[in-house]
Amino acid sequence: MSSTRVVVTGLGTTSPLGGDIASTWEALLDGRSGVRPLPYDWAEQLPVKIGATVAVEPTEVLERVKARRLDRSSQFALVAAMQAWTDSGLDEYGADPERVGVAVPSGIGGVQTLLSNYDVLKAKGPRLVSPLAVPMLMPNAPAATVGLYVNAKAGVHCPVSACASGNEGVALGIDQIRLGRADVMVVGGTEAAIHPLPMAAFANMMALSKRDGDPTLVSRPWDVARDGFVLGEGAGVLIIESAEHAQARGARVYAEVLGAGMTADSHDIAQPEPKGRGGARAIVAALRESGIEPGDIKHINAHATSTPLGDLAESLMINDTLGKHAQDVVVTSTKSMTGHLLGGAGALESIATVLALHHRVVPPTINLDQLDPAVDLDIATKPRDLPAGDIAALNNSFGFGGANVAVAFASA
Amino acid sequence: MASTEEIRSGLADIVNEVAGIPADDVQLDKSFIDDLDVDSLSMVEVVVAAEEQFGVKIPDDEVKNLKTVGDAVAFIEKSQNG
After folding, report:
1. Alpha-carbon gap: A43 to the closest alpha carbon of chain B (Å)
2. Could you tell me which chain A residue has the CA closest to the CA of B52?
3. Are A18 and A27 in contact (CB under 8 A)?
4. Tens digit of each residue's pLDDT (9 = 90 or more) over A382-396
5. What is the third-level CATH fold of A259-411?
6. What is the pLDDT of residues A341-377, one digit of tens each?
7. By Cβ atoms counted within 10 A, which residue in A22, A71, A284, A298 is the most buried?
8. Structural domain containing residue B75
């Protein structure tokens, strides 16, 4: 692997906290929750009736005809990519299309299109199934939609690994640039799975919290009373490019993306390896690829979804890999506010990590009223300043199937 | 039986829904592909919606012959009368 330096030059999101980067970041620092009662009639019959729906409907942003030809997951990806592309300045710079690639997966794909067309099939017969269903529901539709928007011709990719997908998109982007396959990569992830079938399935596998009461208190990573995650939706997109390319066009640089580690537990299809050893190997690999030491890490945006086992395993792996330096790291779980965006999570949390380095402040973890005594981390419960100078941060993501992806970023 | 103008007007609403073209622009001499931004997949949507609305069958083999709005109106009129 070459030592090509890769930098982050553009950011975009549509999230449960806001329809863009500025509103989402402000809400993260304010400790506001995006979890709310689901505004759908079907939620009544479900064991879980809350979720972190997007703050701004994509149909408010996209042209009607454009929106109706896209699955909701692609709508989110497109909205985030439009912002990121503009933010990077590449819309006006005019990058060489053959040097621009995309890696924007989702964890589940166009599940709402698939199921709504199945409803049509059952109710009205095959003639009424949409001729647009296949290009809408295929898992690579969000990546392809983004690719069409930015005119990417260096490859359009969809590296799926459930809840680690967004981070794997970032990791693939780094590789594509370092392998010389692209100068610019549009990376991230998206998810739109707030629908009765995935909701019922996640609830039945005991992954979702069934806590009653105020929805904003339900996602509570590392708290003794945590009992599962809250399903969220939305997308995050980052523009990353070779430092040389960014410098040549005088681009504003948010942060450097140093490298990634990707491993598999090979333990269980859904349960995390209880000691977090797979995740630990991903962190070690990310540090090695990035050429940094445990003491360089000052912040971790944890995967911590608010599940009993996963949150604990992540505490173990951070301590195992960073040793005595683990206590110098300000850790947070932004999922306490955003819920769990599945394939979008690693992307939105990469953005939060980049902004934490850029603004030198870590967003809080909300609802951490009583820390699980088995968790040994310095968790931000209020916004926490990061030190000046050259510092690095990690974003962790883990997915069903045993996928572990850690991405390392550094202050610019 | 719907009149020619009623069929054109119904098709115009369908094309507006599918392709976003103002209904007033959907006139008999307009080509679906060249003038109205209706690509091949959208054309299938238009055809299926027209079948529902006008109670006719438009076979897949026939769709390629429906180049203009007038072609489609004529085919629907003929089917309704047949």
Report:
1. 29
2. A128
3. yes
4. 999 999 999 999 999
5. Peroxisomal Thiolase; Chain A, domain 1 (3.40.47)
6. 999 999 999 999 999 999 999 999 999 999 999 999 9
7. A71
8. 4-81
